[in-house]
């Protein structure tokens, strides 16, 4: 999670990996299928969505 440069004030509330709820830590690795609970100001939603998109360079 530490590699994502979220806008100031964005909070990661938790990450669901399968049926397991994980506490967000700097070392937690996000993977396809993970469900992320984020607290985001409405004005930052588009930027957060952009940051979480996967580009062709990912593969």
Would you give an account of this structure?
The structure is a single chain. The mean pLDDT is 90. By secondary structure, this protein is α+β, with helices and mostly antiparallel strands. 12% of the residues lie in helices and 25% in strands. The chain has one domain (11-58).
Quick synopsis:
The chain has 59 residues and is an alpha+beta fold.
| C-alpha geometry | globular
Low-confidence stretches: none
Give the number of DSSP strands.
3
- Determine the number of helices (DSSP H or I, runs of at least 4 residues): 1
N→C terminal distance:
19 Å
> Gyration radius, to the nearest Å?
12 Å
Layout of strands and helices, then pairs:
Blueprint: E1 11-17, E2 20-22, E3 35-39, H1 45-51
Antiparallel strand pairs: 1-2, 1-3
Highlighted features:
12% helix, single chain, 25% strand, alpha+beta, 1 helix, 59 residues
């Amino acid at each position: 999670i530490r590699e994502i440069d979220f806008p100031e004030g964005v909070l990661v509330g938790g990450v669901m990996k399968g049926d397991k709820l994980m506490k967000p830590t700097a070392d937690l690795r996000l993977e396809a299928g993970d469900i992320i609970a984020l607290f985001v100001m409405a004005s930052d939603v588009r930027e957060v969505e952009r940051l979480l998109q996967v580009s062709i360079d990912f593969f």
